[in-house]
Amino acid sequence: MSDPASNIREVEFMKITKLTTYVVPPRWTFLKVETDEGITGWGEPVLEGHAATLAAEIRELESLVIGANPLLIEDLWQKIYRNGCYRGGPIQMSAISGIDMALWDIKGKWLNQPVHMLMGGQVREKIRTYRWTGGDRPDDLVNGVLALRADGFNAVKFNASAEMQIIDTYAKIDEVLKRLYAVREAVGDTMDLAFDFHGRIHAPMAKIMIKEVEALRPMFIEDVVDSVHLDKMADLNRHTSIPICVGERLYSRYHFKPVFEQNAASVINPDTAHVGGISEMIRIAAMAEAYDVALAPHCPLGPIALSACLQVDAVCYNAFIQEQSIGIHYNQGADVNDYVTEDSRIKVVDGFLPIPQGPGLGIEVDEAVVAEKAAIGHRWKAPVWRHEDGSIAEW
Q1: The dihedral of CA 293, 117, 350, 157: what is its sign?
Q2: Secondary structure of 16-43 in the HEC alphabet?
Q3: What angle do CA 337, 340, 341 make, to 5 degrees?
Q4: Residue 393 phi, psi (nearest 5)
Q5: Is the pLDDT of residue 82 over 60?
Q6: 116-120, 235-239, 299-303, 329-333: range with lowest mean pLDDT
Q7: Angle at CA 342, nearest 5°, toward 339 and 348?
Q8: At a CB cut-off of 8 Å and minimum separation 6, what does 315 contact?
Q9: Contact indicator for 10, 29 with CB cutoff of 8 Å
Q10: Using an 8 Å Cβ cutoff, are 350 and 152 in contact?
């Protein structure tokens, strides 16, 4: 008798026939996965500043993906992840992310259901959202935050500081506090504020900074130290009432495991475009819930990644807020909704994002616009910053 487990892989069914990547402005990569049944899925395998590398990685994976049954999502996910000696890391996991999103998109379209209906169904109708403002170095924060409030937002995130040396001056601390207090005074209690330190502060200064900003009652503080220093983050988390957030630079459940074990954060913000797509995000979110840790998915990216996040938000009880980048300063030349048809544009309504109800990811990509913008492409790179003494600074 033949092995039933092998039969399901060999049975004549839908097959993946083609993978196409599109490097599009402002700094994204889109992936189109085609099948012999005429159903197409879209993913967003992004790693900011490494677009050409991600496109090359997708080509490397074609031999594993083309010919596979797209409905066997977990089997294909594991085949890509466990093939060969080397696994994990930002390149492989971001590539898997794009493929995984596209496979869920295909499966939802095949069954004429949104992805969240294939994962047990939604637990909420909408998710609170926030947007980023103020630029790479915090600039004119008050007007930026007030503009977002006028657009209906009741939560916002921004860089709290520029460069900071491993041991810096109290004058630099006071400069940061002056900006943050000005924002709090401008909005009062009408908006929740999230402070992003972007890993720019080292542990010695972080202790001082956290103590000083506690009175401002931020919604959370993100990457107060670089996420490689989870032991330091855990120490900080134990000594503050502010929820500490980490996750945008972590790439799989194995990177989040010590976050939970060491009690290094109260909030995690993994990104569907980096951690292995919808499938891995759901696993990470479930781990977080077991430790009573909140989920706030990271997504300063395009419409496909955001739609994937919304599918996760729909089914994860501990999700409480969703980042999105419609109108963010990075999106010069092309914005989130420029790449989808008019009927599937993602809209913020009274500070919330509705859970998509269309099949698959719930959006329809405008392929003509994608092709047009891919002809322009991009070569986005993070800026190189230096301290006053000439040494490299964290961006």
Answers
A1: positive
A2: EEEEEEEEECCCEEEEEEEECCCCEEEE
A3: 115
A4: -105, 155
A5: yes
A6: 329-333
A7: 85
A8: 116, 119, 120, 121, 122, 123, 282
A9: no
A10: yes
Give 175's DSSP letter. H
For residues 324 and 346, give the distance between their C-alpha atoms in angstroms, rounded to a whole number.
10
Amino acid at 380: W
Segment (H or E) for 267: strand 267-268
Closest listed residue to residue 268, CA positions, set 277, 255, 276: 255
Distance CA 240, CA 109 (A): 46
Burial class of residue 54 (count of CB atoms within 10 Å of its CB; 0-12, 13-18, 19+): buried
pTM over cut 0.90:
yes
Is 4-113 assigned to CATH 2.60.40.1120?
A: no
2, pLDDT greater than 50: no
The yes-or-no answer on residue 378 being catalytic is no
Domain ranges of the chain: 4-113, 117-359
**CATH number of the 117-359 domain:** 3.20.20.120
- Look at the alpha carbons of 51, 54, 56, 62 in this order and tell me if their dihedral is positive or negative: negative
Q: What Rg value do the Cα atoms of the chain yield, rounded?
A: 21
Which pair of structure tokens corresponds to residue 264?
A: 């290094």
Annotated active-site residue in 50, 116, 198, 255? 198
Say which amino acid occupies 180: L
Per-residue burial over 188-221, b if 16 or more Cβ lie within 10 Å, else e, is eeebbbbbbbbbbbbbebbbebbeebeebebbbb
Which of 116, 229, 274, 298 is labelled catalytic?
298
CA–CA separation, 312 and 295 (whole Å): 10
DSSP 190: S
- 274 is annotated as an active-site residue: no
Tokens of 217: 């009652």
Please tell me the total number of residues recorded for the chain in this structure. Answer: 395
Phi, psi angles (nearest 5°) of residue 23: -85, 115
